[in-house]
Automatic annotation (TrEMBL):
Name of the protein in question: Cell division protein ZapE
Lineage: Bacteria, Bacillati, Actinomycetota, Actinomycetes, Micrococcales
Presence of keyword tRNA-binding: no
Pfam families per record: AFG1_ATPase
Region feature (Disordered): 1-20
């Protein structure tokens, strides 16, 4: 026990299981976007593309329909408004960090009047395929009205090919798509626009997507000097115990080892019910597979809005310089940003 008030659990003692139906049920917007709507998206007047994008996506979410003005006494002889061009089955939101792409993606999800619709990150969909197999995943998703894919990964050719094939099959049956993506590693203008890279990587699906560019600056404007918070070892138990009524407490090495034995699709169940994550004796990760599993775990922690309390090495230093300069650079930088935010939550 970390305190008289808090119940402590070890994530390493959990061995969660998920059925295909349960995995599908978890494909909804993260809690921070539960109430995201087009109305709550605050377009920056300095960047007209934000308001324009919002209007286009509202049209996409309603099936491309437009309100029809009723004819009145003085409407005779007026020129008819040209018909809006038909929207493609997929939209790709192209923009830099912090311009509200995920908010708009969640707004599409909430606005589309459909019983079967799904929202997940690229890694959640590929985890679904990995856990259930390609054919079973196609069968489960066939008939859905909408798939929202946040942060479509462009750094893994194999996963990109699998997702492109999957989306192609679903579009043929009437499923509509909405996606954002990360930029490819070490790309010129990293963190800015990635439409050409996205369309090139999905090749056979590129004609199905309409690119919607969203200009702007990062609304978060987090200081680059702010690092992850570290809890002194002697204060760890009290700090963690004050973070919630049920908290997890694991050695960093033990958690990394455990993640290797739990499929990434089940990481969400690892943290179910806890209100804070405790990590002791954090050290730098030197193994790429360990690092990528930890990134997938942190994505689930961040989406669940759980604070992290940690001792040892600051969590923003957990990836080596070689890793940050390598092929998964963008993925690690995103994780670092989320780790910093979670340790200050």
């Amino acid at each position: 026990m970390t305190s008289a008030q808090a119940t402590t659990v070890q994530l390493t003692s959990r061995d969660p299981r998920l059925t295909g139906e349960e995995m599908l049920a978890s494909l909804v917007p993260p809690p921070q976007f539960d109430d995201a709507t087009f109305e709550t998206y605050r377009a920056d007047d300095a960047y007209p593309s934000q308001q324009e994008s919002k209007a286009l996506l509202q049209r996409f979410a309603t099936g491309g329909s437009q309100p029809v003005a009723r004819g009145g006494l003085f409407s005779f002889g007026r020129k008819k408004k040209p018909a809006e061009p038909e929207m493609k089955p997929g939209v790709y939101l192209d923009g830099g960090f912090g311009v509200g792409k995920t908010h708009l993606l969640a707004s599409i999800y909430h606005a589309m009047p459909a019983r079967r619709k799904y929202f997940g990150s690229f890694i959640e969909y590929t985890a679904l395929v990995g856990a259930l197999g390609y054919k079973n995943t196609v069968d489960l998703l066939t008939g859905s009205a909408l798939l929202c894919i946040d942060e479509f990964e462009l750094d893994d050719p194999g996963d990109t090919m699998v997702m492109t094939r999957l989306l192609g099959e679903l579009v043929k049956t009437g499923t509509r798509l909405a996606a954002t993506s990360n930029t490819p590693p070490n790309a010129l203008g990293e963190g800015r626009f990635a439409a050409q890279d996205f369309l090139r990587e999905i090749q056979s699906m590129s004609d199905s997507f309409q690119t919607i560019r969203i200009d702007g600056v990062d609304y978060r404007q987090r200081s680059l000097d702010e690092g992850a918070a570290v809890v002194p070892a002697e204060e760890y138990s009290a700090t963690l115990g004050a973070s919630g009524s049920e908290v997890s407490d694991d050695r960093f090495d033990d958690l990394l080892a455990h993640l290797a034995h739990v499929h990434p699709s089940r990481y969400i169940r690892l943290i179910e019910g806890v209100e804070a994550i405790g990590l002791r004796e954090v050290r730098q990760i030197t193994d790429q597979s360990e690092a990528l599993r930890f990134v997938a775990f942190i994505d689930r922690v961040y989406d669940a809005e759980l604070p992290i309390r940690a001792t040892g090495l600051p969590l923003d230093k957990v990836f080596s310089d070689d890793m940050l300069a390598g092929g998964y650079r963008k993925k690690y930088l995103r994780a670092v940003s989320r780790l910093v935010a979670s340790t200050h939550a």
